[in-house]
UniProtKB/TrEMBL annotation:
Pfam families: DUF5716_C. InterPro entries: DUF5716_C. It comes from Dorea phocaeensis. This is DUF5716 domain-containing protein. Residues 112-416 form the DUF5716 domain.
Length: 427
């Protein structure tokens, strides 16, 4: 594995940012475009049969705007067709071209995690498809939102920074948003460790704070500072907050000195704009390296149920998850090969984080020929039809020349609780 092959990629409407695992430092490092500047403008250009991106495309836009495109992210999300450089092209293809160009310095990508403001099945499919376009198999591509990236980043900070709750404030030209990382209460102390989530606890439009961006008027800046201070005090009311993180271009101008005093009162405060790409890189590291799994991140889009089979793994028999809690249902499809003892059925356990009850389902293997122990090899496949319906398929795939496949197939439809309501019960 070469340095820089494990990546986190922050993709927003205006910019992208890349963090990579540095083997010498054993932590993510963010690619700089200038001194302490990590932002690569999301602008694509085409001139003289040559593709350009970022700052070069931005310079091209000043003289030949018709040969550049800057609203690429939004148009790709909408799956639009774009008239660009004399051709009609898919906006998704153009976004893939931009991402490909930004990653030219990373020729061998082991794993990449995209971090975006919000994610869903369509966003996941689009970015996994782009990953495949640049040569990364879909199982080596993850997609997560900013809240999860914040979580993943915090997992690898000193424990005292998230001993209690941890706050994130995001500010741009239009709005300010406040998020809080907190621990969840799960039923029956299930799972190997801690479960956490991030809540959006408050938001306001910048005009409500009477701020001008960038802040040029001293009096209005002072008024904005006072209103931001009140905003913070409201967010922190009756909470024990260990640390505070400020992100977004709106915090680049020091218009909030009095608010800073509140932010730093009894807690650590940090200012920076590479948190999401580093959090995404930590996710890639967890998938590729023998890192401590750490807490499990949950939100109202993640599964709160786990599907387990009894298997022998590395000589140790036990109940192992084939679908784990904390996954998106649309990313939980998979397949495994198992070798079974002589048995007439398979038991499936379904555990929920929202309740103590263990649910047991049985799949009959009637019709399979009797074989000696450990000569029965099955392929197990999970396929989700929606957030509450999982189809389990068991296929006899034979065992070498002596035991060819019989063509046996068994199927079980599992009706799960879905997402709605379960997550809220753990709050």
């Amino acid at each position: 594995m070469k340095r820089g092959s494990i990546l986190g990629y922050d993709l927003s409407e205006k910019n992208c940012q890349i963090s990579y695992y540095d083997e010498t430092k054993e932590e993510p490092v963010t690619l700089e475009t200038a001194v302490e500047n990590y932002q690569i403008p999301l602008i694509l250009g085409y001139y003289n049969e040559h593709w350009v991106y970022g700052k070069e495309a931005k310079r091209l836009a000043e003289v030949q705007e018709e040969n550049t495109i800057s609203d690429l992210y939004v148009r790709a999300v909408r799956r639009e067709k774009v008239e660009f450089a004399g051709k009609t092209r898919d906006a998704v293809w153009l976004l893939a071209k931009y991402i490909e160009l930004t990653l030219e310095g990373f020729p061998e990508i082991e794993y990449i995690t995209f971090s975006v403001a919000d994610t869903n099945i369509d966003m996941s499919k689009m970015l996994k498809g782009i990953g495949r376009h640049i040569g990364v198999p879909k199982e080596r591509v993850s997609v997560q939102d900013y809240k999860e990236s914040f979580c993943q980043y915090m997992f690898y900070q000193p424990k005292e920074l998230w001993q209690y709750e941890s706050a994130l404030f995001y500010c741009d030209a239009q709005q300010i948003r406040a998020f809080m990382l907190r621990k969840l209460n799960v039923a029956g102390n299930r799972g190997p460790g801690m479960f956490v989530t991030v809540d959006e606890v408050a938001n306001a439009h910048m005009k409500e704070l009477a701020a001008i961006y960038p802040v040029l008027n001293v009096d209005k800046a002072r008024d904005a500072d006072e209103q931001f201070k009140a905003f913070i005090q409201n967010v922190f009311e009756k909470k024990v907050v260990s640390s505070v993180y400020l992100t977004g271009e709106g915090f680049e101008n020091n218009w909030y000195p009095n608010s800073q005093k509140v932010l730093c009162n009894g807690r650590r405060a940090f200012l920076g704009n590479n948190l999401y790409s580093r959090g995404a890189c930590y996710t890639s590291m967890r998938r590729c390296l023998e890192y401590d799994d750490g807490p499990v991140y949950l939100d109202d889009t993640k599964m709160t149920e786990q599907i387990c089979l009894r298997m022998r793994v590395n000589g140790k028999e036990g109940w192992y998850p084939i679908v784990d809690w904390g996954m998106h249902w649309y990313e939980a499809d998979g397949h495994w090969e198992v070798i079974l003892e002589d048995t007439s059925d398979i038991e499936v356990h379904i555990e929920s984080l929202a309740g103590d009850e263990l649910r047991v389902e049985t799949i009959s293997l009637k019709g399979l020929p009797s074989r000696r122990d450990y000569s029965l090899r099955l392929q197990i496949e999970t396929m989700f039809l929606d957030e509450s319906t999982c189809v389990l398929t068991f296929k006899d795939i034979g065992f070498g020349e002596f035991y060819p496949s019989t063509g046996f197939v068994a199927e079980k439809v599992l009706h799960l609780g879905g997402i709605n309501g379960q997550f809220n019960s753990m709050s």
